[in-house]
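Tutorial, part two.
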Amino acid sequence: MKNKTKTSQYFEWAVLAVVVFFTLRILDKYLFTNYIKPETSQEKWILAIGFIFMTFIVLGVHELGHLLTGLMNGFRFELFVVGPLGIKREGNKIKIYLNKNLGYYGGVAATSPVDGNENNAKKFARILIAGPIASLIFSLICFSIAYLTGKPLGMVFYTGGLVSLAIFFATTIPSKTGIFYTDRKRYQRLTTPGKDQQVELAMLKIIGSFTKDNSYKNIEENDLSLLISDQMPFTRFFGLFNMICLQLEKNGVVEEKYLNDYQTLAKEMKKPMVAAFDKEIERYKQQFQKIKDSKHE
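Running the prediction step on this input gives:
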């Protein structure tokens, strides 16, 4: 079964590579060369600046696809970051801030389920696929504007179309980018019956349970065990984090095996994420200590 899955993935990558090659050839021949190819130094500067400017817009469009679809499906807003612009939820308030985390400059959007409803899986599947669809539509819009306007404005939109198309192809490869799965891969995991689907559903239930109660104690330990036993390091790390917080909230004591595994996996994770998780764990430690101290007074 695994060999069959790998063969299928290799075939998809090969088909995608062919599609990308011919798409770029067609764009170069019928749009770039004939209409908007920069010839003067001034036009080349416009193209370079336009590329930087349009890259952030394109990343924003992709993340907005995820974000707006999540909000339309009843999920709660959590985070939206593109370049230096950051918008996040802090309690019941929405805060705009200057993003200094270079790891988020490529764009991040997050919405979370407000309960453990069974329909969350279908909703999340829509959210996942909405980003690539938004990128594809925006690339077509950019190429159309480039064709209609010509130089110099058309050059800017042409770069936007290329970047947006590149993001579409990158997020539809059924694989991983770093420690995370691509949008397409997560969509496959969520909609294909089996262990991977169970893991994705468990993660949604965990997030929904916490968001609803603002507490870890009502999260089902069976769901956490499913995540902790997964092959993907990030999934195990996320499961261990929630298990630690759950045990701290319930009795202030964490099983040593969970702490050891958490600390080992933390070395493979992104530092900002580890710092955020560690801060939450420390908060629950202090919270339990206060309760303990008050009982002895």
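The chain has two domains: 2-188, 215-296. In part three we will examine how such features are distributed along the chain.
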